Amino acid sequence: MNDNSYSTGDTSSDDANVHVAPGGVGGDDANQDNVRELATIPAVEVTTRAAIMLMSAAAEKIGPDAGGDEEFKDLPDARALINALAGLVSAAAPDLGLHRKPIQDGLKALQLAFREASSYPDAPGEGPGEKYTGPVKG
Fold first, then answer.
1. Which of 22, 65, 116, 137 has the largest CB neighbor count within 10 A?
2. Global pTM?
3. Tell me: the pLDDT tens digits for 92-114?
4. Can you give the residue ranges of every domain in the chain?
């Protein structure tokens, strides 16, 4: 296996706790390189990666106001992603350690970009994720 963030390089352990990346497990080496044992991934890494994925997806759905493309702008989807991110960040904040502040800052930036991208911005405290984070001020 290749040494990267999805593989440990240790092929000696059993296959009971294996996560399979998209594409499944097949006979070729490319698919085998996408496998990493879940038991070896620290919880903070799983949580941080989930938050980053939600942030990236939300930014694309917000559109140009958050660095995404206009063709992918979809504010209802962005709202759902920001709500999920806010819930995750609020629940996991005590466990995120030094990752907490940058993730919270990213969430706030997305909430403000969403407000900017909206034709009819939500009232303070009613925007995406604000039921978890409280009202966001620019």
1. 65
2. 0.73
3. 999 999 999 999 999 999 999 99
4. 1-41, 43-133
